[in-house]
């Protein structure tokens, strides 16, 4: 039986919908875009 931590580890990383770059979730307002693509 896997722990809840292992469950979240198996989740795919959040990716930018524009360039596909993995997003480090720092601000919820970034949405589906990385910091570069969310500039404009
Ligand atoms: Zn991007």
UniProtKB/TrEMBL annotation:
InterPro entries: YhfH-like. Pfam families: YhfH (PF14149). This is Protein YhfH. It comes from Chungangia koreensis. The gene is yhfH.
């Amino acid at each position: 039986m896997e722990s809840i931590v292992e469950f979240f580890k198996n989740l795919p990383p959040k990716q930018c919908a524009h360039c596909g770059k993995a997003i480090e979730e720092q601000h919820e307002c970034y949405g589906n875009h990385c910091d570069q693509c969310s500039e404009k």
